[in-house]
């Protein structure tokens, strides 16, 4: 039985009986040989010629549970050497926590087909070239690379996967980072299983068909009918990743399955898709989740010391937050559950995300504060399903503390995070708040701070053509966070300053100091003595000077012809440049960049520049503000044009002319 929740409407439906089937392995079609790079997408270095998958279920009497069997077959054309990376194949196999139920790969076949002087040459993969990589105790990858690659090679492989993991059936990725000529998927689902089916992505299906297949599943001596679903898409554009996006899986066209119900042979029903009230009870009673939130006794002996200088609830929350930041080091493992329990994490001074932030919640509760857990999915993990509770969607937990009419979201895993600022990887759509006594609810975490940078240059142009002065940079929000993290990689601030001097092309740093490195609630302030060699003396009648040498925009971050997914920056941002330059006497302003005031629609952003000369003082100011954390795909071309104009503006020089010259 199938329940369909289709995000993108099925625009083309074929109700007639479809004869979906696999294509013959190693048998080329004339169109495969003729297909050229420019026939599909001039920027792609490879293309999928044909792709077929079939997923069905069998009951394993020996093991006593249902298994999913997936047959997969694909043929790819490599246009040039830049496409060789698509000949490196990785096939994952997963285990459950017990290690007993594991995916099994078999029947792997692979061949490279080359056309040499009109003759078809097939080079099969030697089975000895299959390698297994133990990624973790839950994941093993089987890897191989196709032999004898050349421009125009056609590679082809197939395999069978037998899996005990039936919850998500088989996700079918219609879209990939190279174009596809054809992709076809068959799903045979026994009537005793009900799945929610979701089509994600911007493109409609070309083929959708449903029919009944009698007796395709056998259990306990009984034959069960199946829903035989066929999904297909043709001429699928490549998905091109660009800056400022969350996980690509959020936007690629794909078909997702989620197990909702199992109907037993005796007529009873097991509801797999639970209500949140059931999940709430499960989480609150879970020893590694709610059980850890309740362990406020862990802080009983140390709480007076932690709160010694706290005068109000906000001060208590900040004191506990700083204590956890400093006393449990993140072991680089994610997770919504505690790995070692919070008491052990405090004693060992190490733990996963669950250990750290569930400990923070327990500490806040011990201090009499109203604290809750917030489960979320990180940006590279994809967005969560907000229609049905799917706990496996969540891979992270943070704390929420409610003080007065305000609340603060806290992640104590990073010692450089200011109070109330979540790391950028946590800003990813909806999150679920879990309270020990009240029903859970949705929130949408946002950045609590704008990411801002201000550069202030006070300098003098000397007769020998040198520009010298002091550059002071104030950084807030994520900009300051990134700089503090980078500073931590150096033994001294002097080493970091040397690094900045090496990568900075606009000026030379003669010396400097950095303030506020440890005070994460304050701005990070960098003081640099700088020098720019502008000219070999000032003898020329005209001096050309480009004022955009501080963090100049040289490359447009938006270059696609079309972007079907949002521009997600995580936080609003603002960058200012203020210059005051004392000139030698006897100069006037002959030409300068136009004073600019460019805005994005809906108050989405602004770019301002202003240049003027008053006496012997040249002043220049610049503002680049992006006021939204996220921009819809419809705003993409406006953003692209916005940055294109900025790049052109920043090519224009100031021209100074000697008076009377």
Question: How would you describe what is shown here?
Answer:
InterPro entries: Papain-like_cys_pep_sf, Transglutaminase-like. This protein is mainly beta. It folds into 3 domains: 2-271, Immunoglobulin-like; 276-443, C8orf32 fold (Roll); 451-658, Jelly Rolls, CATH 2.60.120. It contains 11 helices and 36 strands. The protein is globular and about 100 Å long.
Structural class: mainly beta
Number of E-state strands: 36
- Distance, first to last CA: 87 Å
Oligomer description:
single chain
Give the second-level CATH assignment, the architecture of the largest domain.
Sandwich
**Arithmetic mean of pLDDT:** 91
Uncertain stretches of 5 or more adjacent residues: 1-18
Number of helices: 11
Supply the number of structural domains: 3
Strand order of the largest sheet: 6-5-9-3-2-11-14-13
**Strand composition percent:** 35-45%
Largest sheet: 8 strands, mixed
For the CA atoms, what is the radius of gyration? 30 Å
Level-1 CATH class name of the largest domain: Mainly Beta
Percent range of helical residues: 10-25%
